[in-house]
Amino acid sequence: IEQAAFQNDKLAMLGKISAAIAHEIRNPLTSIRGFIQLLNPYLSEIGKQEYGRIILSEIDRANDIIYEFLNSSKPSAPMMQKVSVDMLLRETALLSESEAHMKGCEICYENFAPELAVAVDVKQIKQVLLNLMKNALDAIQDVIGERKGRIAISARQEGKFAIISIADNGKGMERATLNRLFDPFFTTKEAGTGLGLSVSYRIIANHGGTIRVDSQIREGTECKIYLPCVE
Ligand code: ADP
């Protein structure tokens, strides 16, 4: 429990820092955008106009990324809504289907408690589920030559909790990785942000739940989300 409290402090801090950084970056982006727009009529040659267009669209893209990031990391109060776990998981499987297909990976879904319902912020929980699916697909990507990828999604009830499990047969993790999994900005990927699991952990903690991860190096990983269930 102490470990979890410490984790929450760190994540709350991350939320504050990232909101501040995002704010500091958005302001100059907005003014650069304005000045380039003003310059555009003076850029007579076609080539330069094209450059101007690219610069504007790249600024917009950077702004979108910051917006997304800000949305996912700010400690907003969840908008609670009662939903069936079955619906959440079906949609998660569906949304990951095309990427899984490209990697020759099969997604299996089994629900041992079809009536299970939770009170959650649907947008936030979907974000968590998709983060976990993306990690599973990345882990499978790394062993793609060795075996056929498989992700098993399942749900069951244990006392007052709904347990959602996402298990992959990807590359697994070493102890050292497992220990730092929820640290903000911890990543082993070349283009990773290291934010997926720290943000996910905080979202689930805000819902009164937790995330547990088991992993065997070269065998695979199972992530279990615990959420309080409702009648
Ligand atoms: P990112 O995906 O950007 O690296 P995450 O916070 O989602 O950030 O994950 C942190 C690290 O945890 C990953 O870089 C990876 O090393 C490890 N990891 C997470 N999920 C898995 C998984 N299913 N299998 C193997 N490693 C994983």
From TrEMBL:
Keyword Nucleotidyltransferase attached: no
GO biological process annotation, one example: regulation of DNA-templated transcription
Keyword Transferase in record: yes
Domain of life: Bacteria
Annotated EC: 2.7.13.3
Signal sequence coordinates: none
Catalytically driven reaction(s): ATP + protein L-histidine = ADP + protein N-phospho-L-histidine
Coiled-coil regions, chain positions: none
GO MF annotation list: ATP binding; phosphorelay sensor kinase activity
Domain Histidine kinase: 20-231
Keywords: ATP-binding, Kinase, Nucleotide-binding, Phosphoprotein, Transferase, Two-component regulatory system
Protein name, UniProt field: histidine kinase
Originating organism: Cohnella phaseoli
Shown residues within the full chain: 207 to 437 of 437
